[in-house]
Amino acid sequence: MAIVSEKLQEKLDVLNEKIRDCFLKNDHLGIINAELKKWDLLPAPKEIYDESFHIAKSLIEEYIELKNEKEAINWSKKIQECDLGRFDCGEREFILGKTLFEFHHFQDSINFIQIAYKKSKGREFKGKDPKYLDFYLHPEKYIKES
Fold it and tell me: Can you give the three-state secondary structure of the chain, one letter per residue?
């Protein structure tokens, strides 16, 4: 877990203000562009920084909202390597499982959803859309035999 320099944090804070403005305007593309600028500002290797996890998580949410499957899945895989110093509570697996679920990759999703449930003892599902818990409890409703 690495912390960005004070100078870099100031630049990130300016972009965070832009993101807040875009959020208030429901401007998903504006949020994505600002988050990608933040990502570009992180020194290599980007994934060691705390901020990398937050950037990736925001991008995933926005890409899901815009139904951009390729980018949502790409960032959901990338977040698996971001800020590995974070407490491992199943959040990464939940994010990837949720993303795969949203794009109807149920067979792939269930494995990550199960890991997230086990690691978090169900806490990761609290306050989230109940369809994810339903999927965990009743995967057969979603996964159809071919």
Answer: CECCCHHHHHHHHHHHHHHHHHHHCCCHHHHHHHHHHHHHHCCCCHHHEHHHHHHHHHHHHHHHHCCCHHHHHHHHHHHHHCCCCCCCCCHHHHHHHHHHHHCCCHHHHHHHHHHHHHHHCCHHHCCCCHHHHHHHHCHHHCCCCC
Instruction: State the Cα–Cα distance between residues 99 and 132, nearest whole angstrom.
Output: 11
**What dihedral do alpha carbons 38, 24, 78, 50 form, nearest 10°?**
60
Enter the pTM of the model.
0.95
Among 90, 68, 65, which residue's Cα sits nearest to residue 79?
Answer: 90
| Rounded CA separation 4/1 (Å) | 10
The residue ranges of every structural domain in the chain are 1-86, 87-146
Mind listing the pLDDT tens digit for each residue in 30-87? Answer: 999 999 999 999 999 999 999 999 999 999 999 999 999 999 999 999 999 999 998 8
